[in-house]
Specification:
Oligomer: single chain
Shape: rod-shaped
Distance between the termini: 94 Å
Order of helices and strands: H
Structural class: mainly alpha
Number of strands: 0
Largest sheet: none
Amino acid sequence: MHDDDSTKSIAVRSDFYLTFDLFYRPQLLFNMEQAIYNNKCYKEESFNIYLGHQIALKLELLIL
């Protein structure tokens, strides 16, 4: 008789998910948070550059 492969695969999968949760999920969440933070900073910096250009244009119009 052969061993039941389905129970082995369930055990292997549960071991994998447990290992993934303990070791990889915190890093994955950190990477996602870092990406969101970097994107937010990039958008804020782009907006600040845009505002700087708008202010410079208005100053040029006032000088002219």
